[in-house]
Design goal:
single chain, 132 residues, mainly alpha, two-stranded antiparallel sheet
Length: 132
Amino acid sequence: MSASRLLAVVLLLAAAALLTVGLLGWQRRLPRNRFAGIRTAATLRSDAAFSAANRVAAPTVFAASAICAAGGALALGTGGAALAVIVAVAGSGAVGLLLAGGLLGHRVASAVPPPTGGCTGCACSGGGCTAA
């Protein structure tokens, strides 16, 4: 497989993954997890904070997906210096948008009130709460 095809496939796979995460975040169906979504202390504090952060960041995730898709499409027919420029611009543009969305999502999650009641401030196991 040529370098242009390999890089095009990588960019197109990144675009598909970002589109999926963006859609799930927009629809508030992205669960808190280890791999996808905005993962800061504020966003992981509650399901509501995680959901709000990823919903507000979804447009930047969609834009990053579009940049990766465009870069992947352009990379298919090029080589040499043009390929390097396409990959660098698409990659840095996508990362920049994802960082901006992450910061915005973190700010929104920080404004979500912390959960109350239940097991806040204690160590829970299936049988109930014990002082931490």
